[in-house]
């Protein structure tokens, strides 16, 4: 049976070679498994035009959107990233004699590598904050991993008992919208939550402290005195450690600043740029804890169980996990430099 579809350049060369070697059309067809018509056509094209390529890529209907049209479409997308396919189609067809459909626009965008995705959520950065982030990155661009090992990272985080995820999707038929198996229950404020404060460095995980009420200056002073101080003096007995904290109001209170000033001979408070969770590796530890809570086999029913689960997960975090995060700091700094102080993917 003859081969269906176009022959490759190699197969066409085999046909020409066999015919030039003296084989008949029938003998070449039996040898290569192609039809006699194909053998005759390929050899004739080679004899008359020296053609050995199928040129299949030039066959078929002409593309409605040429390279110039793709550049125009890319400009429209970059001008308005939130535009729908309908809006892009309308703008693309303005001033054109021949309009194209939304389906063509969607297919062309996909061929160009564009796809509809959820945007990353990042802090809103003012021009001043961008400048401060850039200055921080420039000041620490030459820090090595060994330098970052001297930093202790800290932060607060809140975990909800009932986590609401708007991205959940289910399979159902049209009449099953209110079927109990197709519903997701919600509660106000996530059913309550647990706030914790934690600290870690490349050398060790520090304590994880539950915060029963809101974290004001008085509560944070207790954390600093009871947990930060012993951790820093233990991890960095030669007073070469840096303590990192963000710019939350309770961290900048007068009593906190006075306490750090009294202990400035034991460790240094790292001057931290505003709105920079992407630079703080502890944020990724919170993500790990959150994920472990979500995949637990046992459904947590109260805040006590939630708090116990958080504490248990924290103590089981591996060295490889938190050390790898510290070792990512040079890359985080370079990302901020590249973004000129803007938000990054970390």
Automatic annotation (TrEMBL):
Pfam family, one: HTH_23
Domain Tc1-like transposase DDE: 152-293
Domain Transposase Tc1-like: from-to ranges: 70-142
GO biological process: DNA integration; DNA transposition
GO molecular function terms attached to this record: DNA binding
Stated name of the protein: E3 ubiquitin-protein ligase HECTD4
